[in-house]
Amino acid sequence: MARFIIAGINGAIAVAAGASGAHGKWAEHLDEIGRLDQWQTGVHYQMVHAVVLLVLALAIRVMPDSRAARIAFALIFAGVFLFSGSLYVLCMTDVSKWGAVTPFGGLSMIAGWIACCFCSKRQK
């Protein structure tokens, strides 16, 4: 149940972040400091991976013994937190050092995708 909540919250945050980056004063601020593209990248990756988290939550429910699915879920969740989260903080603070965190999130998401390759283990 918690995995479905995590996936849903990630999707909701992505929609809210996308809307705030597209409308009003926050959008103007992001455009003024030249960070709108980075904000949108964070939103895009978070939304795509919210769907992936939902699919993995379903896979774990169907295959509760799948260690690979649980590992993939954890890695992708951590990756989204680090990747999109660091981009959001970078854009909110305009402190470039936050960009150093972003690649670690990317690596975690890549590792999560690789773990997905092992989710189809046949049950006997």
Automatic annotation (TrEMBL):
Stretches that traverse the bilayer: none
GO CC annotations, alphabetized: membrane
Matches recorded under Pfam families: DUF423
Primary location class: membrane
Keywords: Membrane, Transmembrane, Transmembrane helix
Cellular localisation: Membrane
Signal peptide: none
Family: Belongs to the UPF0382 family.
Identification of the protein by name: DUF423 domain-containing protein
Species of provenance: Sulfuriroseicoccus oceanibius
